[in-house]
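Protein fold
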Amino acid sequence: MVAPEQILTYARVVTLVLCLGGATYLDLKIRRVPNDWWISWAKPALFLLCLELWALEADWTVWLTASAVVAYASTAVIGRPTLKDVRNGSPEDILVSIWYIASIVGLIFGALRHLTPLMDGLGLGSLVDCNYCSTTVEIQASFLWGQMLLIGVVLLFFEMCYQLRMLHGGADAKGMMFVALCLPGWGEISAAGDALMPPAISLLIWGAMSFLILPIYVFGINLAAGDAGNLKMAWHARRLPLSDIPNRHVWLLDEVIEGADGEKKVDTRMRPSRGGRAENKLQDILAELEELGADKAWTTEKYPFMAFLMFGILPLLLIGDPILFLLNLVGLP
C-alpha cells in the first residue's frame, strides 16, 4: 500500500518533470520561458507544500516562515513593491506588502520558538542559552521550521548564482527556484538515503555534470558528418550550411579578416565573441563568407541549461545526492 508521504513525493516528481519539460521545450523553441509559466506551475507545487504542512500539523510560525520563503521567491516573477507603489494606492502592491510583513513576523516568531529546539536536535544546544531539554515533539516541529528556512537559503543561493552569472539566464534561476519549492526535501525518494545537499542543489550539480556528455555527443555528430578532422573545433562546434545559420539558435565562430598580406581569409574562433560583429551583423558576415567561396561555417549551439536539468532528474531519482555518491565512490565516509 502506498503511504501518503510517497503520494506527495510522486506528485512532486511528476510536477517537476512536467514543469521543467515544458520549460525546456519553450527554451529550445523561443529561447525564453514566460513568467506566466512559472506562476502557473508554482500553484501545484505550493499546494503540495501546503498539504505536507497540514499533514504534519505545522504551527502558525512554520506556515508563515514558508510564506516568507514563497514571498521571497515571488520577487523573481512579480518584482518587489516599493514605498512609492504603496503610497500610490495600488491594491496589488498593498496586498503584497501586507503579505511580506506578515511573513516576516512569522519568521521572527518562528526563530524565537524553534531555534533552541533545532539546536538541541542538531546537538548544538551548547551554542544557545537553554535552561531545559527540548522534547521530541518540539524538536520535530523545529526540524520542520528549519526545513522551511533551508528552502529560503537555497533560494538565496540561486539568486546569488544568477547575480554572479553562474546561472546565465533568468529562466535558469527561476527554474532552480521552482525546484527548491517543488522538492523542499528528499521525502520518500528511494535513492535518497543520507544526503549532504538539498535536492535542488543536487539537481543543479547533476545538471552541470551532464555537460560532460556534450563533447562526446558533438564529436559524434561531426564524425558522422565528416567534419571531425579539425580536432580543435570538432568536440564543441558544428559546421552548418550558411543558409541554415540565421534560422538556428547558434553563435557564429567564423569571421572574415584581412591578413598581414592584405588578403582576406576566414578566421575561426574557439569561443563566440559576445556583442561583436558575429552577433550584431550576422548577415554581413555570412555574405562575406559566401564571397570567399565558403558554403559552411563553424558554429556553436546555444544549449539551454534547462535541458541539462532534465537529464539531471534521472540520476537525482536513481542515485540521490551527487556529492555523497562521489565520496562513497572514492571510499570516503
Summary: The mean pLDDT is 84. The first strand starts at residue 238 and ends at 241.
